[in-house]
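I hope you will forgive my troubling you with a question about protein structure. I set the record out below, with my sincere thanks for your time.
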Amino acid sequence: MNLKKKLKDNILTIGSWITIASPIIAEIISKSNFDWVAIDLEHSSINISEAENLIRVIELSNNIPLVRVTSNNSDLIKRVMDSGAHGIIVPMINNADDAKKAVSYTKYPSEGSRSFGLARAQFYGNYFKKYVSSSKNSLVVIVQVESIESVNNLEAILKVKGVDGVMIGPYDLSGSMGIPGDFNNKRFKNIIDKINSKCKKLKKVCGIHVVEPDEKELKKRVEEGYKFIAYSLDSVILSREVLRAEKFIKKIK
């Protein structure tokens, strides 16, 4: 079952983020039983050429490569999709018009406005017809809800044809509320509960980023009904393990 079908059927999937342009890290994460791996172009120094190589590694590891783009930009989304991404995560979607653009930039006519090209996704033209045909039922579009404006327009965003699900961006959302990073704040908790409930009502996948590699937090989000969960990210997992080792070393010295 492909990821798009799992999202449509509200089946839980758990993935992680790549922010370091290392094929070794991408391979390790891709082979670690995650359902998908997202390459983050928004908050990293990864360029489009590096992203294509990471997509290649993730695919060769039998995993699903997604890419979070820097913005809702048609040129960038086109290049990411031509590089072979199986779908995109688009930040800062504030209303239905933003969501419609994201879908349109990802899909070919007549469903969208993406231009045709011969690149890695189409195996340089050899699988052009096959790719165009299969992409209709496989390419994923996840839009990020990370502002109060997007929360207020959530129902209209969820009803946009081609949107496979939404993902809460906790830091930006809390920032738009004037409480950046305060995830225990009652107002923040109420807002994300509202988003999750609205998604359930409209039978759309609701996703969230569990930033810290905290198993209890992950379990809690699963129990709350989130179905598209990003579990931490490469740099945070690495840095937390280094800090843990540092504390242990200090104890035994």
